Fold:
Amino acid sequence: MSERFAKKWESKREENSFVDTLRGTVKQQPPLKPRLDFAVKKLELQINRLDQANDRFTQKDRALFAKIVDAYAKHDTPRANIYANELSEVRKMGKLVMNARLALDQIALRIKTVTEFGDIMSTLGPCIGVLRSVSAGMCGVLPEAENELGEIGNMLSGIMFEAGSNSGMSLNFNNVNEDASKILAEAAVVAEQKVNANFPDLPPGMPTGAQSDKSRT
Structure:
């Protein structure tokens, strides 16, 4: 870890050059590590909230599934279709929440590994891209999470801009977008697996919500 970085990272009391002292006088910025730690804590809070939301969707899924089985047993297909459509929407939102939760978890783990300016630039760029995608996806599902994730994204953008200014490094946006897409894709695959493992299939012959939608068109 470079001496210059150590000053910005842990805010240690060491001798500064005249130029560094002048910069600090003009605009004193808080050390980077505490700000990154704070961002991780805020991310972990959102992860906990998404876990709570996932539990609610799971409970609702079980209740609807029981209603579908009951209606199906009574040969009440129209009512079973209504419940199936509702269950389909619940599972879509549950999958979205699980996807967001897994993506945020990856972001938090990546930020915790940051140790130098170069890491900040290469790590935070994709993380910010993922946060924006997840935040947009939470609109209509968990609006409060959407706002919080937007604030975290702005915080990380400020840290990344400062790191770039201090190091003279610039972002490769092609790599940033590619890495962000990989994080989201990996989270989507795992979310699909978890949802399929946790939620039971409908009874044989019972139309799904998607099939019911097609039948009405």
